[in-house]
Amino acid sequence: MAISKLKPRHASEGRSIAAVLKDRLDYDKNPEKTDGGLLVTGYQCSPDTAWQEFAVSKQIYTATTGRKRAPDQDVISYLIIQSFEPGTITPEDANKLGYKLAMEFTGGEHQFIVATHVDRAHIHNHIIFNSTNLECDRKFRDFWFSGIALQRLSDIICLEHGLSVI
Fold first, then answer.
1. Distance from C-alpha of 138 to C-alpha of 61, rounded to nearest angstrom
2. Which H or E element spans position 113?
3. Residues 30-64: pLDDT tens digits?
4. 79 backbone dihedrals φ, ψ, rounded to 5°
5. Are the C-beta atoms of residues 1 and 85 closer than 8 Å to each other?
6. How does residue 1 score in pLDDT terms, banded at 50, 70 and 90?
7. Does residue 43 have an active-site annotation?
8. Catalytic residue among 27, 43, 61, 78
9. Nearest to 159 by CA among 104, 97, 103
């Protein structure tokens, strides 16, 4: 059984987008939570430099489109938390399922990092994806009921891999 949530991450007033991204990604990739960093995978970015790559894409987006929002309104990334029932999945399999969930949810159009945390009784993924797409010409649109769509997609992936769903 997996539970998933979608949370927008905003820029902070008085701090650069790069600094906010670095702090948040550093927490998500914490070696103490991710088996020394072995349970961190990325798509179209390196986990070590993802914060820089995300920040550059936002600079290109602003330069290309001319669109810029106030820091408290600008969503710079999204966090998906996918939690599994204790004892039902290995950390490596959880990371693979998180990667598959992120790939299908974003349609492969956004960079992302999957960090599988093993520091609690339940294994859970922190999936961070860039709000700016790979072409740097659009941002992810957090549509109405996107959290429900995410949960259903997670349920389908879990069922495909023999895990129970709520």
1. 7
2. strand 112-117
3. 999 999 999 999 999 999 999 999 999 999 999 99
4. -115, 125
5. yes
6. low
7. no
8. 27
9. 97
